[in-house]
Specification:
29% of the residues lie in helices and 3% in strands. A 3-stranded antiparallel sheet has the order 1-2-3. It has a two-stranded antiparallel ribbon with strand order 4-5. Strand 2 and strand 3 form a beta hairpin. The two termini are 41 Å apart. The relative contact order is 0.17.
Length: 436
Amino acid sequence: MIILCASPAFATDLPRPLGVDDFIQPDPAQARLGQLLFYDPILSGNRNIACSSCHHPDLGTGDGLSLGIGEGGQGLGKNRTAGMGEDRIRKRIPRNASGLWNLGAKALDVMFHDGRLSVADTYENGFNSPAEEWLPEGLDNLLAAQAIFPLVAQFEMAGNPKENEIAGAVHQRIDYAWPIIADRVRHVPAYAAAFVRAVPHIETSEDITIADIGNALSAFMVWEWTSFDSPFDAYLAGDITALGPDQRAGLKLFYGKADCVSCHAGSLMSDQGFHALGLPPFGPGRTRRFDPMVRDVGRMGESDDLADAYAFRTPMLRNVALTAPYGHNGAYPTLEGMVRHHLDPLAALDAWTPEMAALPEVPWLAGIDFMVRQDTREMARQRAAVTLAPISLTDIEVDQIVAFLDSLTGAGAKMGRLGVPKTVPSGLPVDPRVTD
């Protein structure tokens, strides 16, 4: 047998295997509580969308769409619609719903496509976040902090101004909304009792805060979607038979000729850095108040550094085969398409067509969906930001890299541990399972 780990053809050493000690160890009782909250629409402004609506296990912990349909939409995945009448959506979610795999990794220190949440002491509360100094105290970890932001995002879960008290509070100051959400939860008897049982410092329902809710959501996501039991992980641990011939060839390319490891480095398969890949732009963009152009400048929107223009965070790759479509805006429906884009970004950008985007029809937004592509100056700026040099691979070699990426799927990834509850304490409907 050939032990590829020792092959001199690799441009870099393979990472060490991941293990239990690489991850936060969640409390089981808090994880069970977080499971109910994750699937409960009570956390949304209009009580019509849950965390699971955009991060569902049947869809690889994403939503199966390029750009999501948030508050006001109905259904899951490709069958999700944009709502009707006054309740219909006002805007697509500007970026792709990321998968939730391995977000409890202790080494992870930045989240969101643009890195707007990170571990730092910028505001003397342990995090650099959009809430700045108003971030609630008591959050256990980075994932707990991340979990509370979609709850107060207008087009994700909060809703529009004048629709509900949460949306109204957000438009005064972001931290005004979180106590209202916590108050909702504490007035559900089953939640109040569960928090008292699961969280040592909570003695009565009045003690429940948004930080406790974030911590419970974090515990659930870590409990449910920590994954390092893939064939690749077995290979790293010494089982040289865990990968098939094409997967071994793809691994050799990934860590050698194709140079994927220059960004997807280390045991988490991410350098946690930001890179401009020139992905085909579309959608409403993530604009700022002083920059209302239909575009997404990526990391620069957070850093205000021109060097970060159009750069996005390198994703981790465990279970990547489950999380289509790919890219910060879901531009590519297949892993093959995403791999080919990396190999020659500008050529792929020229060859891309709007039909490749998974966008449920929304007639009243159709005029803006691809508007950015008509802006020749903006397109030129995005092209100029790309620094990846083309790499020439054969079709067979591309297939081998895709085969290797398939080997990153965990044996238990599709099963989960707690699963989807049939009911939640609020009595609100739980999203149906995806059956096709």
